[in-house]
């Protein structure tokens, strides 16, 4: 029998990318081919169909761009450590696992107890119950030593600028030399939320506005790469259906919410 979920407002937003990946896996030309997402949607008793519109596909494209940032890191550092801060029900570890990476998925208690119903720790994969804003997980993820990659996808957007800047400052100090991938959204994207059918279906709203990721550099991070849906990595674009690629190139140029939504890679 499908299980019901009881999640906080921001936590519930994890069901959007989950459903996006499940829909994508059922498409003729799938970007991520995430069949686990289909199983999870089947296992969870929830009105997923209320999520409609292009942002569902957007969450899939975003995941593909983040995946490539991680794959690039693992090509350079096959034994590196990756930490997904605010992982939700992401299957990224299983998508990019090279057989050697040490991986940590972190999320807050209600999300993590949901996640633990469907995923298990292994010798290279560990789930941590915690908050991106706390520091009690820092030692655990650094224990192996060596290169580290932190990523936080569609999480910081839900918090105010002061908290986001503070946490970026602390991460850059503690994990100096490592990589960090986070997404940023400009003012027009923030303003479009109430007219976006996916976001309208839930009460949580994104609040952190950042039009230019380079403006974050004074916090101690250096911008290495920044992508929009109109400018994905070439290897990623090749796996997108040609209609998606064409549409995103046009929207990336002319539609402000798409143009100002950025997936960024920093050095800490
Ligand atoms: C839109 S979902 C994104 C989930 C996942 N990153 C993905 O892309 O599928 C937002 C996530 O932020 C998590 N979250 C909320 N507050 C958090 C916090 N203080 N620390 C870490 N994660 C948090 C939620 O539980 C949820 O999983």
UniProtKB/TrEMBL annotation:
Molecular function as annotated in GO? methyltransferase activity
Q: Name one GO biological process term.
A: methylation
In terms of domain of life, where is this protein from? Bacteria
EC annotation from Swiss-Prot or TrEMBL? 2.1.1.-
Q: Which InterPro entries match?
A: Ppm1/Ppm2/Tcmp (IPR007213), SAM-dependent_MTases_sf (IPR029063), TcmP-like (IPR016874)
Q: Name one Pfam family in it.
A: LCM
Keyword tags: Methyltransferase, Transferase
PANTHER family given in the database record? S-ADENOSYL-L-METHIONINE-DEPENDENT METHYLTRANSFERASE YKTD-RELATED, S-ADENOSYL-L-METHIONINE-DEPENDENT METHYLTRANSFERASES SUPERFAMILY PROTEIN
Q: What is this protein called?
A: Class I SAM-dependent methyltransferase
The record lists the organism as Gordonia liuliyuniae
């Amino acid at each position: 029998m499908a299980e019901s979920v009881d999640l906080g407002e921001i936590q519930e937003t994890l069901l959007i990318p989950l459903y996006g990946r499940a829909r994508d896996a059922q498409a003729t030309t799938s970007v991520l081919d995430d069949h686990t997402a289909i199983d999870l949607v089947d296992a969870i008793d929830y009105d997923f169909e209320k999520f409609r519109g292009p942002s569902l596909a957007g969450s899939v494209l975003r995941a593909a761009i983040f995946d490539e940032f991680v794959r690039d890191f693992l090509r350079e550092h096959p034994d590196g450590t990756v930490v997904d801060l605010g992982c939700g029900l992401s299957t990224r570890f299983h998508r990019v696992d090279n057989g050697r990476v040490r991986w940590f998925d972190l999320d807050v208690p209600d999300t993590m107890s949901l996640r633990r119903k469907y995923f298990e720790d292994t010798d290279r994969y560990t789930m941590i119950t915690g908050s991106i804003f706390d520091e009690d997980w820092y030692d655990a993820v650094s224990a192996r030593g060596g290169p580290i990659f932190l990523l936080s996808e569609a999480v910081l957007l839900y918090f105010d600028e002061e908290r986001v800047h503070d946490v970026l400052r602390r991460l850059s100090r503690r994990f100096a030399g490592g990589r960090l991938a986070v997404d940023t959204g400009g003012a027009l994207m923030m303003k479009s939320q109430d007219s976006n059918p996916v976001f309208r279906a839930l009460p949580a709203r994104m609040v952190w506005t950042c039009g230019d990721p380079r403006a974050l550099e004074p916090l101690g991070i250096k911008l290495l790469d920044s992508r929009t849906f109109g400018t994905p990595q070439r290897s990623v674009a090749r796996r997108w259906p040609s209609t998606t690629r064409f549409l995103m190139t046009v929207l990336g140029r002319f539609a402000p919410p798409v143009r100002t939504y950025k997936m960024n890679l920093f050095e800490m």
